[in-house]
Amino acid sequence: MRIGLGYDVHRIVEGRPLVLGGVRIDAPFGLLGHSDADVVAHAIMDALLGSLGLGDIGQHFPPDDDRFEGADSLSLMREVLAMVEREGYRVGNVDVMVIAERPKLLPHVPAMRRRLAEVLQVRERDVSIKATTNEKMGFIGRGEGIAAQAVALLLPFAERGRML
User: Fold this and answer.
1) CA distance 164 to 126
2) For residues 85 and 95, is the Cβ–Cβ distance under 8 A?
């Protein structure tokens, strides 16, 4: 088995949609980024790539490449999942911590888990999403950004796609 750690952070800005875990959340702001700036999806992708020593999402989807401008992060995650499968692995589970002062994320967690489980081809219970604040400290506490950390466990496939 392989374990990877991912982290992502984006600045809060007015005039952009807020997308977390593939779910559009009703908020008066969004996150600044070249793609849809989904910090949850980005942290998971970095954890998946890192677990196999395949670098990070910036290497595979460069922020200065026009092909990825405004990209849906779940589409990029499907590409990362294909890389994982080519290496002979499948996702066992992911555990994500979202750090944000606002908006309240608990009502959106079930939808995020469903969307991510579908893309990662795992059960919903294999996708854990927790949310916390930064207790009004630092740039997150001042409402300037949102961050996410993720851990991913990959399990090897045996012949015919069965787990070893």
Assistant:
1) 18
2) no
Structure tokens at 158: 């045996």
Instruction: Please give the model's pTM, rounded to 2 decimal places.
Output: 0.94
| DSSP per position, 78-131 | HHHHHHHHHTTEEEEEEEEEEE-SSS--GGGHHHHHHHHHHHHTS-GGGEEEEE
Closest by CA position to 93, among listed 73, 115, 121: 121
| Rounded-to-integer distance, Cα 79 and Cα 85, Å | 10
* DSSP per-residue letters across 124-139: GGGEEEEEE--TT-HH
85 Cβ neighbours under 8 A, 6+ residues apart: 157
* Tokens describing residue 105: 């994320």
pLDDT digit string (tens) for 84-129?
999 999 999 999 999 999 999 999 999 999 999 999 999 999 999 9
- Determine if the peptide bond prior to 103 is cis (ω within 30°): yes
